[in-house]
# Entry
Amino acid sequence: EVFIMTFDSFPQLQQDLTNNLSLLRESLDSLRVGGATALNMAIVEGSDILAERAERRALIVLSDGYDTTQTISVDQAVDYARRQDVRIYSIGIFDGGGTDLRGRRSFDSFNLGEDYLRSFADGTGGRAIILDSLGELLAAYEDIANELKSQYALAYRPSDPAEPGEWREIEVKADGAKEVRTKPGYFGGEQ
# Structure
């Protein structure tokens, strides 16, 4: 199931969770871009939508990474998504020179928006994909969809259980694996 949310001045749910492709296409066709960007709050609200799902929880965020409303910080949004056990897959679109679609460029070729998108992904066990053009967008979505279809669940019981609310980092290694991507940890008291 998929939902569609916009996040200009504030997050707005355009289409609730559904697997109806006609409803999703209709929602996408009606989208208009403009206004401020409440990205961090959209991460929180999107995580809330997914929180009750028993299955895998993943947010796919298409953005330049900038939050112009600053109602909550990137760290707060990442922490909230972690607590809801949501992985964030962020897709950023920038030109080859590191300029976002609004023409903003950071000093010293450091793109703060790209850094935020990577923080969302790295902090939740998702992945950041940075594109140079809209022509790469379909391939990025297909790549994420393929990854979500090929994930495995592992469980373990620590010898020293974490206290409720305590953050514990985890590391998973697999012999011969090209790449292993996991959530960075868990909060004590989780099942």
Summary: The mean pLDDT is 86. The chain has five helices and seven strands. The first strand starts at residue 2 and ends at 7. Strands lie at 2-7, 11-18, 58-63, 87-93, 127-131, 167-169, 185-187.
